[in-house]
Amino acid sequence: MPKKIVLSPEIRADFDFLSNTFISKDKEPEVEVGDIKLANFEPQVKIKRWGNEANFSIRLLDAAPGQATLAVDKEKVVWAKGDREAHFYAQGFGVDNGAFELEVVLLSKPTSNVISFSIQSKLLKFLYQPPLTQQEVDAGVSRPEKVVGSYAVYHATRGNMHPSEAEAAKYKVGKAFHIYRPRVTDAVGKETWAALSIDEQAGTLAITIDQGWLDAASYPVSIDPTFGYTTKGSSGTIGTANYIQAGKFAASEAGTVTSMTAAVFAKVTSGNIKYALYKNSDKSLVGDTEEWTVTSAYDDWKTLDIISGGAITATDYDLAFWPSGEDELWYDASGGTTYYDDQAYDGWPDPYAQTAWSTPRFSIYCTYTAGGGITVTPTTLALILSEFAPTVTTPRLVTPSTLALILSEFAPTVTATANRLVTPPTLALTLATFAPTATATENQLVTPPVLALILSEFAPTVTATGNVVVTPSTLALTLAAFAPTVATPRLVIPPTLALVLTKFAPTIEIGVVIVPTTLALNLSTFAPTVAAPRLVTPTTLALLLTEFAPTVTVGGVIAYTSYGGPFLYTAANWNAAVEFFLEVYLKAIAGTVRARLYNDTDATVVADSGLSTAATSYTRLRSSALSLTDGKIYLVQFGTESVANGEFKAGKLIAV
Fold first, then answer.
1. Structural domain tally of the chain?
2. Do 384 and 303 belong to one domain?
3. CB 222 within 8 A of CB 104
4. Residue from 244, 32, 2 nearest 120 by CA
5. Among residues 482, 522, 476, which one has the least CA distance to residue 383?
6. Considering only Cβ atoms within 10 Å of each terminal Cβ, which end of the chain, N or C, has fewer?
7. Residue 455 is inside which H or E element, if any?
């Protein structure tokens, strides 16, 4: 192999050349052609995703005798040995835009119809994409030819529910790339598909070509396995209007979903789409998004904001997609749990049918804000109308029944996150039957005046620290005119009066302490007049409303950030007597700063690893002995809460 390689302008534009290895200038994904750990060039490609958090290497296996050569031909790196060549070249760079080709060229008929490669990977899993079943074909599912028999490659641990917009944009549905089915082409342009198979345990990838096709081929023959940097699924769903499709995914913590995103493809006609979130265990509706009209020929990710609900806990949820037209949701054929519900496009059903489908992994994810919310606990609201039972005697008797006005207890407890609507239950105020009985022996007229009950506007001014806004709706309480006429000698019983207080639904953006002013309720004088031969004027009704002064408090939320690289604990590499300790070096600027050891594999905090200090000078802290689990990945995390902040110099695991 020559010691000096002449680099073409095309290669110089896209790659750096170091130690016989070509390293792409584009870093997401980053591609290495060759093996930088070896002195000589090897026919290998390494693809690094998410800053090398996960990676994949593939190397052509070749036992042929002779000396290999390396050259550059425009945009291609060309390795050659005996009757076989390997051409390495990019077909664009960047996530969702690029791909990489490892093209194997057979200069003459090979002794075997199988081309073998060794593979290595970190934090990746490979999902085989089989041919469509007849049922899927009949239902209208689409799968391109190059995808049949291919592999979708996903992050081994990342899910589809993300605690920030930055993480959601970075990982989406966790797809790293796609290894498409190889196409085989001979010297006169005759083509066929090859079979692709991966054995993760053995660390091999094999491409098998039909032997009869090779026997009849004109040489040279090229085989082009392509690595596409797509983040979307490679197959299209049924694309039938009025069909809810949902995928099951796990939430690792409590929070509030703020948006959902899906890979949408307008197949034939455009319509409307919307997304929703269901709790997997009971199929109940948790939250839903705005609606969007799909534009013609649309084929991309689409994010829609949550407009109702969205509160989640650490459990499984179904992320649902619902089109009104023939719009498809991209997916990969295995690695998931999915459901459907055949419903005419309308309001989201609650619950939904959740009919089991198969194992597709839908290209849909959500973004949430971690943490709990605000608790509002108003005090009891008491409203009492004193008894009204006047008796009129001589020579006429007028005895109205007791007028009772009672407001039942109003003490709702509501929980919400910032910028969410808090709607306590309806406040019911009822006036019991008022049915005076008038008895007379002469033609006398009894005419009580209007009974007026008015609740003045309830729009309290709230004073609190921080940016707190509480705007309750105005309460309107009105009793219509009640003026019955009673003519002797008949008995008149007016119907029951109904008095209802409308809903009290304040909007709370964020809470500290909320103290509304007193609620004013006034009942004007009720003084009926009984004429001839005596005038009777009962006293004014007494009506009292106690003060309504709810208090809102908010608890602190601890935010943790991971520092340094992950540590994979392999028990076989350590003496059984070794003990592990977490040691950190940190200080507080305000409040309390914290540290912990986090099991990233299981999304749990290691028991007894929590450390904290309020010291304002750098302090070294060490945990008690920790118990680690074989095969798990661990991260050191630092955290602050509310207004607390600090500085962190170091964190490490110590083995003793």
1. 4
2. no
3. yes
4. 32
5. 522
6. C
7. strand 453-455
pLDDT reported for residue 493: 41
Q: Do 283 and 305 have their domain in common?
A: yes
Rounded distance between C-alpha atoms, residue 448 and residue 535, angstroms: 12
Q: Name the residue type at position 378.
A: P
Residue 70 structure tokens:
């390396």
- Cβ pair 322, 285 in contact under 8 A: no
Hey, what are 482's tokens? Answer: 């009640």
pLDDT of res. 527 = 43
From start to end of 138-194, where are the E strands? 150-155, 161-162, 175-179, 183-185, 191-193
16 occurs within a structural domain: yes
Q: Give the full edge-to-edge strand order of the sheet including 470-471.
A: 420-421, 507-508, 470-471
Of 504, 528, 555, which one is at a domain's C-terminal end?
555
Q: Same domain, yes or no, for 359 and 311?
A: yes
Question: Residue 494, preceding bond cis, omega within 30 degrees?
Answer: no
Q: What is the pLDDT of residue 642?
A: 60
Q: What is the pLDDT of residue 213?
A: 97
pLDDT digits (tens, 9 = 90+) for 164-201: 999 999 999 999 999 999 999 999 999 999 999 999 99
Give the model's pLDDT for residue 307.
96
Can you point out the beta strands (E) in 168-294?
A: 175-179, 183-185, 191-193, 195-199, 204-208, 221-223, 226-228, 235-236, 243-250, 255-266, 272-279, 285-289, 292-293
In this structure, the answer to whether residues 86 and 169 fall within a common structural domain is yes
If asked whether residues 424 and 314 sit together in one domain, one would say no
543-545, strands of its sheet edge to edge: 429-431, 405-407, 383-385, 543-545
| Partners of 198 in the β-ladder | 205
Partners of 99 in the beta sheet?
228
Q: Tell me, what CATH number does 577's domain have?
A: 2.60.120.260
Q: What is the dihedral of CA 131, 133, 138, 141, to 10 degrees?
A: -50
Tell me which residue has tokens 């609740």: 455
Residue 553's DSSP bridge partners are 375
Which residue range(s) make up the domain with 114?
9-228
Q: Which of 640, 638, 648, 655 shows the shortest CA–CA distance to 598?
A: 638
Residue 4 within any structural domain of the chain: no
pTM: 0.60
Which residues does the chain have with pLDDT short of 50?
Answer: 1-2, 373-402, 404, 406-428, 430-435, 437-438, 440-443, 445-446, 448-450, 452-474, 476, 478, 480-496, 498-555
pLDDT in tens, 17-36: 998 999 999 999 999 999 99
CB 294 within 8 A of CB 327: yes
Rounded (to 5) percent helix, strand, coil in the chain:
5, 45, 50
CATH code of the domain in which 249 resides: 2.60.120
Q: Which of 196, 228, 260 is the last residue of a domain?
A: 228
Residue 564 lies in a domain: yes
Same domain, 224 and 89: yes
Cα distance between residue 606 and residue 357, in whole Å: 37
